[in-house]
Amino acid sequence: MSNLTLDRRRFLQGSGGLLLGTLLFTSGPIALMAPSLSWALPMTTLDSDSGDKLLLMVRRIYPHDTMEDAVYAFPVKALDQKASTDPGVADSLRQGIALLDQKAGGDWRKIDADKQFAILQDIQDTPFFALVRGNAVNTLYSNELAYLHFGYEGASFPKGGYLLRGFNDLSWLPNPPASASPNPFS
To answer: CA 60, 46, 31, 168 torsion: positive or negative?
Structure first.
């Protein structure tokens, strides 16, 4: 029975990839929606190390200092799903991550942000970069947690439109003079 002890490393190895994180900015809207301050995202094709590197890559391409890693995990999950159905995508991701490490002279995550950015500029014309960037722009900015971060209320049609829900709530702008708008009834 002593062989049944399970440490974190063996659990992660046995469960495939698992992207783990903690919500750091506990006062933001994302933390208010989260059931706990920790999050985990299971992956089917990529390992945890690859997921971490892709998450950091997406963060460097689309930097938002106050956006939680949990939001950046959505593009990583989408890439993992693509890789699980398309071996070409899986190979491209593995080769691209290896290229990041090669250009960094080791672990790409461990070099400073300026060097990471320079490496990304250097590989911006590769199919790997295009795959990550194209996937990330769609999945990063089209999820409810990103909407919360930016204060976007989402699509208006399912909620009855904007006429009675925010159409005239520009309280931060001064009222324009009457002469600025033509009379619609004349």
So the answer is: positive
Chain segment 46-105, per-residue pLDDT in tens: 998 999 999 999 999 999 988 888 888 899 999 999 999 999 999 999 999 999 999 999
**DSSP codes joined into one string, the chain:** -GGG---HHHHHHHT-EEEEEE---TTSHHHHH-SSSEEEEEESSS-HHHHHHHHHHHHHHS--TTS-HHHHHHHHHHHHHHHHH-HHHHHHHHHHHHHHHHHHTS-GGGS-HHHHHHHHHHTTTSHHHHHHHHHHHHHHSSSHHHHHHHT----SGGGT-STTTTTT--TTSPPPPGGGS--TT-
Nearest in space to 131 (alpha carbons), one of 46, 68, 67, 49:
46
Q: Where are the domains of the chain?
A: 2-152
Unique residue bearing structure tokens 């491209």: 92
pLDDT grade for 36, boundaries at 50, 70 and 90 = very low
Name the pTM for this structure.
0.70
Are the C-beta atoms of residues 155 and 91 closer than 8 Å to each other?
no
Q: Which amino acid is at 101?
A: D
Contact criterion met (CB below 8 Å) for 81 and 44? yes
Confirm if 145 and 71 have CB atoms less than 8 A apart.
yes
